[in-house]
Amino acid sequence: MTSETLADAVRSAMRCTASGVAVLATDGPGGRAGVTVSTLCSLSLEPPSVIACVHKDSRTLRSVLANGTFSANILADGQEAVAHAFAGPLTAHEERFATGDWADLDGLPRLEGAVASFACRLADSHSFGTHVILIGEIFDVAATNNPPLIYADRSFHSLTAA
């Protein structure tokens, strides 16, 4: 299988999986920026940490690396507009924060109503292929009981009881 054919097959297979949706956000000397990611997961409880993957050409990645901190906001059902605003390359970073209600979590942007928001120090980063894997050590958290926004088969879904 050629690498292009393999990439298409992997993309098609990954469409069959479901993931949560998160917005990574940062603010500081390196600038205020944010991006929608579908790769955010718990890494460890000792120390409390998460991993997130961001495209290596992302302005948000450059800001996170410069600021050394970021928030990871897990979107709740009904926050699709926030996901779209932070996903598109056509929306300026300053304008992205006009979508949704943003507050402060230890100096970092926190999305009001999100399932959870984690304030993280950048502990490490690893480049692989087209993305950079960020490891964030959590130093604060805010959580709600709101149901999560789910992304599968190229669209957003609600998580409902079976």
State the gist of this model.
The protein is α+β, with helices and mostly antiparallel strands.
Describe this protein's structure.
By secondary structure, the protein is α+β, with helices and mostly antiparallel strands. It has one domain: Pnp Oxidase, Chain A, CATH 2.30.110.10. 20% of the residues lie in helices and 46% in strands. It contains four helices and twelve strands; from the N terminus they run H-E-E-E-E-E-H-E-H-H-E-E-E-E-E-E. The protein has a seven-stranded antiparallel sheet, sandwiched between helices. Strands 1-11-12 form a three-stranded antiparallel sheet, with no helix packed on it. Strands 7-8 form a two-stranded antiparallel ribbon. A hairpin with a 6-residue loop joins strand 2 (22-26) and strand 3. The longest helix is centred in the first third of the chain and has 12 residues, at 3-14. The model has no long low-confidence stretch (mean pLDDT 91).
